[in-house]
Hints:
By secondary structure, this protein is an alpha+beta fold. It is 19% helix and 26% strand. It is built from eight helices and 23 strands. Helix 4 (283-301) runs antiparallel to helix 6 and helix 6 (361-377) runs antiparallel to helix 7. The N and C termini lie far apart (48 Å).
Amino acid sequence: MITLTLLHPVQSTPVQSWSFEKDSVIQIGRAVENHVVLYSAVVSRYHVELRQSGSQWEVVNLGTNGTYLDGQRVTQSPIADGSIIRLARSGPNIQVQLASTDAIGVEPRSTQADAPAQVPPSELDAAEPMTDLPEPQAQASQFRELGQHLWPPHISRESSAATCEHQRAEPDALVCIDCGQPLNVIKTVGNYQLLKPLSRREKTFIAWREGHVVVLKMLGPASGSEHAELLRTQAQALCQISHPGMPKIYEAFEWQGQLFLISEMIYGQNLQQLVVRQGALPESQAAAWAVDICHLLDYLHQQDSPMLHHGLKPVNLIRPTIPHGLSQVVLVNFGDLWEETEDMSCAAYMAPEQQEGKSVPASNLYALGATMVYLLTQQDPDAFYRLGNQEAHLAVVDIPNLSPEMAQVLVQLTHPDPAQRYESAVAAEEALKVLA
């Protein structure tokens, strides 16, 4: 067995691990078909291979930016137990552990170390009663996948029932740090074991499958209404797209009459946490992150059927611990992509037309402007709402310490009339680049 552990870039502590028992060739790179997928600008699509010959493993460089073994650049070299592989001169570090399968006696796994949660504790509601989730049953006919299947090809398509008997190092751990098996499973949905609720209202959970920690979201009934058919169609479309500014969507599936979405778990600090801890951001920093968000919004809006995110706000924007392509922030919670939310915490970030259930691409630009207000002031946007001739509007003129240039951008982003906002995410991006 060989175990690869991604190390934190500063603290050198474990972030994520992968174990392989039967594979004799392990591929590492940015492309989703690799055994180990790493999002970093310096990592090539197919950066490195680990190859087994008898009892010996060796590393083979494939990437243009080079591969380093224990600090020395190599083209092809044997690997020793405990060696550290670095992808490119400034890229991610991976520690190698070699052990015999007989000595370990566990299934291959992937573990997540003590990284910050995707959603802060302040955003977590008490565990939602699970009575509205279907009871687990064994009928395979009730588990049906939709759209393109994006799980890496070496991962089993069937769920594991292994039981962990190791001593608990951390009482609140979700998975065992020794064998990678899930602890304190709430419920089983299809091939996934639910470990922890992320939000009561949104029915979102941290889940586990075959050594992978993911995010599972129940979207709603899989059939029986026009809305259900829309969910199904757009879930299929979502499985076909990929952008560094969003998590990978692994699959959508139907199970016992409900539609579920599985996405990548993004570890890091969300922008609400960051502002609470560090204070309001400089205009240049807020603008730079807004540029990244515009790049993602343009990608979503340019799909054959434009995709809108109905929950764009600071808590859904993550500064990832592990680099996620060139994007400095990642927009999560894509289960809200189609469904109008009744969550009142979103109201201050929602455009007037979105609150009336008539979202358009420009609605996302309004949410971006409202998010920037929070980043620049450390106050929710509703602190600056004023009653106009007919309805409340965001009064940018009341926001203190804004430069005239930033004030003008925010005025256009948050105009009550969507036709008066920037004509596209690209146009907003160009205006923000001047301020970044």
